[in-house]
Amino acid sequence: MLEIWIPVLITLFGLAVGSFLNVCIYRIPRTDVSIHSPRRSFCPECSNPISAYDNIPILSYLILRGKCRQCRATISVLYPLVELATAGLFLGMYYHFGLTLEFLLALAFIGLLLPIAVIDAQHYIIPNVLIATGLVLGFVIVCGIAYQRADVWYLLTRLIGTVAGGMVLWLVAVIGSAILRKKAMGGGDIKLMALNGLFLGAWPELAMVIAFSALSGAVVGTVLIISGVKSRQSPIPYGPFLAGAAVLVLLWGDRLWRMYLQFVGWN
Questions:
Q1: Would you call 9 exposed, middle or buried from its count of C-beta atoms within 10 A (0-12, 13-18, 19+)?
Q2: Which of 6, 94, 174, 240 has the CB geometry, 3.0–4.6 Å to 117, for a possible disulfide?
Q3: Contacts of 40 by beta carbon, 8 Å cutoff, 6+ apart
Q4: Is the pTM of this model over 0.70?
């Protein structure tokens, strides 16, 4: 009976976490508010506090038809999308990892990648507070997994991944800047890659993240330029592509790597 309710509870938990991530996404890049103040959520247009019954993930958005109850301003569809994405990814991680410490590590990773991706897409920044929180939280959980497995090498590979991730993308940024004669990559992307190394490991995970993010970034960038949404000089945030590639590797990295080895005849 409990096995039936676990996915339901994880989905509800994911919706609740997604609602909190929306708060982080809105407040962290701004200097006039913080995560803790004001305590209650408020409408960005009229600044009226949002009642608890109007702050239920997904349901309140549907009941209010995407409008503020007070001023009738449009509520961004991003809010329910973040909640749905969080719940869906949490549920996917449960089916992939089960109720394990690896599952907890995956939840923490998702809870960091989502706001990082959205904030970078909106503001072209990756807040240090999210990176620092991820490094501390990830290190604690990784230590717990290493202790549970009695596997020091697991911990070492994650620490190596942290350093290697940051160093590799730093080198890419330096070389790219020298070739293009302009800033090729922000410091936030370098820090995010270090975070990816901690949560995913060093090899071949980092190589796959770089490959998938570069490919997806190139495709999306080309489409945006051709469609006229962006020009060749317009900056395109790289964080969302690194985050998306990290989720892909987290869920299917082993399978994709085996497929690649079979394709090139190394397995």
A1: exposed
A2: 240
A3: 49, 50
A4: yes
